[in-house]
Amino acid sequence: MSFAGKRVLVTGAGSGIGAAVARRLAAAGAEVVVADLEPAAVADELGAHALQLDVRDESQVAAAMAGLDVLVNGAGIGSTSSAPDTPVEVWDDVFAVNARGTFLCCKHAIPGMAARGGGSIVNVASVAALVGLRNRAAYCASKGAVVALTRALAVDHVGDGIRVNAVCPGTVDTPWVHRLVGEAGETLDDLRARQAMGRLGTPDEIAEAILYLAAAEFVTGSVLVIDGGLTAS
């Protein structure tokens, strides 16, 4: 699929799934904005525009969202505790990035997209939005909010020519997952053993699905699960 002539901003594009999305979009001809707290390495690799962006900061977000054809909300953080063991500060921080950050980016991208005749937004949620994961209370709740927001936005803005969809990845082999595994006292082998396919997903496999949703003209309000059978087993 071609994104030639399309201006696309990807949050969380400094590593993992976001970086894989940025690479695929650049290869498909898009003008890519690599947005992250540390965007330089991926942007330099692609010859793309680097934008240091904290999605929790509305003034930064508002300035970044002008003139977009496609927005991919990939920025996210996790937590590894049950509700009684989750400090309020951790809960608030997880929601500030995952839910508030996604909301702010959509809020400020949509008016410009509508004025340009339409656009496409893909939000990165998680299987944690669909099933309970042990010791992931704040993360599950925040990603559930992303799924609900996706559907609400799709209904509100279909008349503006704006499609809004989400992906729900399972366990993907990214630096972020490696960090969470360490915090939870698990190993990657423990994670692989719980997967129906016996392996973790790759960032590129999730990126492929994100590009599909970004381009699929008759798809909006959809939540695409990409988890290797995790939620089916």
Which superfamily, in CATH terms, is the homologous superfamily? NAD(P)-binding Rossmann-like Domain
What about the largest sheet? 7 strands, parallel
CATH top level?
Alpha Beta
Helix/strand order, N-terminal first: EHEHEHEHEHEHHHE
Return the average pLDDT rounded to an integer. Answer: 95
What name does CATH use for the topology?
Rossmann fold
Q: What is the overall number of helices?
A: 8
Q: Give me the Rg, rounded.
A: 17 Å
Number of structurally distinct domains = 1
The chain-level structural class is alpha/beta
User: Which of globular, elongated, flat, extended, rod-shaped describes the shape?
Assistant: globular
Q: What is the number of beta strands?
A: 7
* Uncertain regions spanning at least 5 consecutive residues: none
Task: Provide the helix percentage.
Answer: 40-55%
The N- to C-terminal Cα distance equals: 32 Å
- Strand order in the largest sheet: 3-2-1-4-5-6-7
Characterize the structure shown.
This protein is of the alpha/beta class. The protein has one domain (about 5-225): 3-Layer(aba) Sandwich (Rossmann fold). About 45% of the residues lie in helices and about 15% in strands. It has helices at about 15-25, 40-45, 60-65, 90-115, 135-155, 175-185, 190-195, 205-215; strands spanning about 5-10, 30-35, 50, 70-75, 120-125, 160-170, 225. It has a 7-stranded parallel beta sheet with strand order 3-2-1-4-5-6-7, sandwiched between helices.
Topology:
Layout: E1 7-11, H1 16-27, E2 31-36, H2 40-46, E3 49-52, H3 58-64, E4 70-73, H4 88-115, E5 119-124, H5 137-157, E6 162-169, H6 175-184, H7 188-193, H8 203-215, E7 223-226
Parallel strand pairs: 1-2, 1-4, 2-3, 4-5, 5-6, 6-7
